[in-house]
Amino acid sequence: MIELKACEKTEKDAAKAFAWRNDPETVAAAYVARPKTWDSFWLEFSEYYFRIPDFSPLFVLSDGRDAGFVRFDAPDRDYGKAAELMINIAPDFRGKGVGTAAVEAVKKLFKAKGYERLIADVRRQNESSLKMFAKTGFSEESVRTERVERTGEICSIVRLVCLL
What we know:
Blueprint: E1 2-6, H1 11-21, H2 24-29, H3 38-48, E2 58-62, E3 65-73, E4 82-89, H4 98-112, E5 117-123, H5 127-135, E6 139-147, E7 154-163
Parallel strand pairs: 4-5
Antiparallel strand pairs: 1-2, 2-3, 3-4, 5-7, 6-7
């Protein structure tokens, strides 16, 4: 059974998300495909992730065990009442349907809050995330090429949208 649990602005909660963020598969799929340092992650977590009340991060629990982390942001353009989501499933829970179930739970939560859409930006080579989002009702809106300022890397980003 999948549950969503409020994440708190504590170093303990940040440490869980930090470990999953620096997993090699997650690093490869991240917008900035480099591991984060604790100091930079803690600053981002504590100052950025909790700034919009509706968008506070959540832990994903599978049968009561920590299985992932979901965070949210405001979309970069007007989609009506919408949220952008980023999801990271713990390595031990990948490939077991946890991500799919977590996104379905997030959809129900945001629909109940009156949101109209969820948005996800995914690297083109992140096939597992693209498949998971397609399973949960997201469809491709656009593809863009971006240069990641911090690394100089050129990457292809797929914008996915789900109507709630």
